[in-house]
Design brief:
single chain, mainly alpha, Cytochrome-c3 Hydrogenase, chain B, 3-stranded antiparallel β-sheet
Length: 417
């Protein structure tokens, strides 16, 4: 019998440094026994100031380098959204062939991102043999990306007004060979992830996000589609060559006939999207139009256009994690961006974390949290405001270092309580 006034709940901090978290974030979990009854998500451990850097570089073309480095995994969708925003603000229309090349590269990124996530998901539930299998499979798309772009990670393919490199017909056979490989092993991946007893037990009816909650919390990407939300920027507001390809949003009922909104459904959506990306790339290769790959090959002319342009633009792209938005504003006579604002998909998907974790078991935290495919480097922003004057403040390196030390000590003291 419990003593009157005796507490049965405890708060367990997970992170900001934890083996289950690949990037720094802190989850304060209120537990009753092994059951999670409340969650507090604490972000702010990563500050890089990319937007500020972008507004202080010499010109918008230099920011493509920064946009690629918002996220190491999603390094195509960010520059994709960025250049579309700049092109809209400056009135630049890329050639049709460049639009198809952009889509091919973006779908290659989706394949590698989803396979990377699948391997990490297997690792989070302790199934490392599947982790090694999937990452070995992922090497094929990484090799293809290197073959097409020259790089395995940051591709450096996009340019304002088009793309920097062509995909020639001589390269088509190598691309088709990799696509054929993935089609040949797709059923094996499907069997491993959807039929294995261990994975089913750890993911079915775990981390449920109902469709009404997914809509209310404004979730995006596979997190939303796994809950039955028929939302995909490539379908709803198609950009680049997607308008020619009749894209359909992937939901789990396409395979199972039902929607639960659990971790298992998020696996289904990502697996089916890998298959869909293969089909999109094949279609782009078949329908690739001839022509130029840049609206203006002379960068001096592009820079002059950007310097004299005035306006604002919004670029929206369907990243592997969901919708990413870049907003820019150009002012005539100003070489640098007047404004650059980024909204990454994890920024909104984090709002669903308390909902999907409440009621779960403590041991399920790694896989449930990983199921939204979080990216902290994409998400965190830092704007320092003077509370008295409401004006932005700036700091010297010494002052910033002092503030970092103070914060680290404060967090250490909180964790020691």
């Amino acid at each position: 019998m419990k003593d009157e006034g005796m507490t049965t709940t405890y708060t367990i901090p997970v992170g900001p440094i934890h083996p289950a978290l690949k990037e720094p974030i802190r989850l304060d979990l209120k537990v009753d026994g092994e059951e999670i009854v409340d969650v507090d998500v604490i972000v702010g451990q990563v500050h890089r100031g990319i937007e500020w850097l972008g507004m202080n570089r010499n010109n918008p073309i230099q920011n493509i380098y920064l946009a690629e480095r918002v996220c190491g995994i999603c390094n195509i969708c960010h520059p994709f959204a960025y250049i579309m925003a700049v092109e809209q603000a400056a009135g630049i229309t890329p050639p049709e062939r460049a639009e198809y090349i952009r889509v091919i590269i973006a779908e290659m990124e989706r394949i590698h991102s989803h396979l990377l996530w699948a391997g990490i998901a297997a690792h989070e539930i302790g199934f490392d043999s599947v982790f090694y299998l999937v990452w070995r499979v992922r090497e094929e798309i990484m090799d293809l990306i290197e073959y097409v772009t020259g790089n395995r990670v940051t591709k450096a393919m996009f340019q304002i007004g088009g793309v920097r490199r062509d995909i020639t017909e001589e390269q088509f056979p190598r691309i088709r060979k990799t696509l054929a490989y993935y089609k040949s092993i797709f059923n094996q991946l499907k069997t491993v992830f959807l039929d294995d007893r261990t994975i089913r037990m750890r993911t079915k009816n775990v981390g449920i996000l109902k469709v009404e909650d997914a809509l209310k919390l404004l979730t995006v990407g596979p997190t939303a589609r796994a809950s039955g939300v028929n939302k995909d920027i490539r379908q709803d507001q198609p950009y680049a060559a997607y308008a020619d390809l009749d894209i359909k949003a992937i939901t789990p009922d396409m395979l199972t006939g039902t929607v639960v909104g659990d971790v298992y459904d998020r696996i289904i959506v990502r697996l089916l999207e890998v298959k869909q990306s293969i089909e999109i790339i094949e279609c782009c290769l078949e329908e690739m139009p001839p022509g130029a790959i840049l609206a203006e090959p002379k960068m001096a002319k592009v820079l002059n256009t950007l310097k004299t342009a005035e306006g604002e633009g919004v670029g929206r792209a369907e990243a592997p994690r969901g919708e990413v938005i870049h907003y820019v504003r150009l002012e005539a006579g100003r070489e640098t961006l007047a404004t650059w604002k980024i909204r990454a998909p994890t920024y909104v998907n984090l709002m669903a974390v308390p909902t999907i974790l409440k009621g779960a078991q403590l041991a399920d935290v790694p896989i449930v949290f990983a199921s939204i495919d979080p990216c902290m480097s994409c998400t965190n922003r830092a704007v320092v405001v003077n509370r008295k004057t409401s004006k932005r403040a700036s700091f010297t390196n010494e002052e910033l270092h002092h503030l970092c030390v103070e914060k680290t000590r404060r967090l250490s003291n909180e964790l020691a309580r």
